[in-house]
Amino acid sequence: MKLKSEGLPRPEPRKFDSSILATEIVERLTYRVGKDAANAHKHDWLHAVILVIRDRIIDAWIRTKQEFHEDKGKRVYYLSLEFLIGRLMRDAVSNMEMLEQMQEALGSLGVDLNVVAELEPDAALGNGGLGRLAACFMESMATIGVPAYGYGIRYINGMFRQEISDGWQVELPETWLAHGNPWEFERRECSYEVGFAGVVEAAEETLGTPGKMTWNPQERVIATPYDTPIVGWRGNQVNTLRLWSAQPIDPILLDQFNAGEHQGALRDSNRASSLTRVLYPADSSVAGQSLRLRQEYFFTSASLQDIVRRHIQDFGDIRTLHERASIQLNDTHPAVGVAELVRLLVDVHDIEFEEAWDIARETFSYTNHTLLPEALESWSVPLFERLLPRHMQLVYAINAHILKVARKTKGFDDAAVSAISLIDEAGERRVRMGNLAFVGSHKVNGVSALHTELMKQTVFKDLHKLYPDRINNKTNGVTFRRWLMQCNPELTNLIEEAIGPAFKDDAERLIDLNKFADDTAFQEKFMAVKLEKKIQLSNHLASYCGAKIDPASMFDIQIKRIHEYKRQLLNIIHAVALYDQIRTHPEKDWAPRVKIFGGKAASSYHNAKLIIKLANDVARVINQDPAVQGLLKVVFVPNYNVSQAERLFPAADLSEQISTAGMEASGTGNMKFQVNGAITIGTLDGANVEIKENVGDDNIVIFGMTADEVAAKREGNYDPKEIIANSPELKQALTAIQTGTFSPDDTFRYSGLIDGIVEHDWFMVAADFDSYSLAQRRVDEIWKDKKLWAKMAIKNTANAGWFSSDRTIRQYAEEIWKVGL
């Protein structure tokens, strides 16, 4: 049934007056939540407040959609397996510029906005930097006027909720959807069927020729979208985050159920729900690998069907897709979309393969986030062919096309052809998703200047030779609306008092703060704000995890995904060495320091989990020793997420960015620390290189080998034993860890972890230790000079503006997507 819409009255946009807001909150509480104000609980108020804010967002959302439809311009589609959006209420009320009115409205009702906001769960849609980057990009696209959709998965449980039990990581379901999600809207009319496995047959009219085929999947599920509005700054544009939920074709086989075969009757329902149950299921088993590939194809296929449907609806001719749509692949997770779009064009829309391939390549672009070969996904050919038989055919066809070009026009030898092939034949034959994303995109970007150059030299060396104009750089950025204005309103107010409000619309205007770096009065105000944020964090950690820390100490913070290349282990070993030095030389003037760690280890990553346990074991010993009280403390913050990050970044004095040079693609935590006035201690890795260029050599503490030096040492006859023997501090610390000083209940718990350093030291922990230790002593000396520390901190904030995600998105829009702004 089609309803008449033209000429129907439209509701007036909602007003922002505090008295009107208060009235509407009570109305929502009464008629949507079913409570009167006298009996409402805090979570009832939260729901009512969100609904009132949401109404105003909807006004802007509908206007944005109408403008998109009327403009008929090019749209951007951002495909990502993660969107770490965090809590949305404060973000939305701030970007809609109604924070003061909402505080006043709730205050008139006897309710504290801050108390209510703390009840909102973090959306469990991501893990680390990849997902948070996607969230920052979505907000920036709305802010600067890029018409965009984000596409991902509506995870029921997300990654996991991390608890720490006896120092070990314990993984529990993250039940963020247990009580519903008032921000989302189900769009069942835009559901699509997604298939797996089955058989492929030649279409009758093309029998015996390459081209159109008929795929008859053995398993089918329904992808149903849930839309969340993403508000840009000042509410001028609202884009859409569309997340897919999986539903079975037949939820229950009633005959089987009534016959007592309960599990069999619910099999299809269980298989469908598993697709959107957990982010990154452990892939150490074939079943885990299968689920991971199924997830990736599920959301990619649904997204591409939606994009194609919208294009045909608005523009008619599928052949113009690349002129009206730009699809960004955020890492290799949606890389199967290259083959899926070709399938849709060839098998559904009757386009010849060569033309379909050209359309796909001009439509896609690909962001690479890693130089780790093992992180560039690959799937065994038997698994890929069993789950996606038609796509396997298309991968072979694409590969044949690419390899012929390489052989005939470029004269590639066997080794180069093997390197660019979509099929890795060294051992078990595997489909290389990184190569598929590369050849299937017209542009491939790195996420920092160093990373982009290393891409050309390492993981994509031969593909770069084949397509020398394809790789470009787009250094990452973060949205300052959340990572300065929302999480640090005290510093925001101080900056506005000093340089005016222009930086709120253009982060690069923060550079005007440089003139206050030597101003003693401003330094005192700046450091007073820092102390206030440290007190807030101290109070939070005391109630959250029982950690009691002194706000007058240096807050030395490393918060990120736990991985050996990020070198939390180097930081922990330094804590052990510093512990020894303080006890041995109590007469020295030590700078009081609290080392704060946070981050999750992947479920199947044994060494990362062991590093978490070591951090907690070291903390237990150091924190109970009266010899170092007031001088050194170690804290591990459980369940690090966006909401925890919003407390930690503003309180940091020292930002630990200490990855092995050449292994961190960019980092975005380094930028969030920087804008909040933390001083970076780091290697010349990822975006640290560009932070150094922006803040100046005197306002950052750099240590360790460069990426070239790391590569040379790995290729040479590097012997970590010699390094260790010549470093008394390092040797003593490693011996203490290896022989059970911190694990008396299990003397050999860390022997394997330390053996990895002693025997081969792939991540250069031993090689960089002495340099790191010296850098930390320099940090101590700077800390004692309060005026110098304040100057450096101000310089970091003042020169952080270039790392705005608005700048990054403008570069994507102009140089890759070709979207007019």
Low-confidence stretches: none
Report the strand count. Answer: 23
Number of continuous helical runs: 34
Question: Looking at the chains present, what oligomeric state does this protein adopt?
Answer: single chain
Just give the CATH class of the largest domain. Answer: Alpha Beta
Description:
Keywords: Allosteric enzyme, Carbohydrate metabolism, Cytoplasm, Glycosyltransferase, Pyridoxal phosphate, Transferase. One of its GO terms (molecular function) is pyridoxal phosphate binding. This is Alpha-1,4 glucan phosphorylase. The chain is α/β, with parallel strands linked by helices and 821 residues long. The protein has 3 domains: 14-71 and 97-120, no CATH class; 72-87 and 122-474, Glycogen Phosphorylase B (Rossmann fold); 480-801, 3-Layer(aba) Sandwich (Rossmann fold), CATH 3.40.50.2000. Strands 1, 2, 5, 6, 9, 10, 11, 12, 16 and 17 form a 10-stranded mixed beta sheet that branches. A 6-stranded parallel beta sheet has the order 20-19-18-21-22-23, with helices on both faces. The protein has a 3-stranded antiparallel beta sheet with strand order 13-15-14. The model has no long low-confidence stretch (mean pLDDT 94).
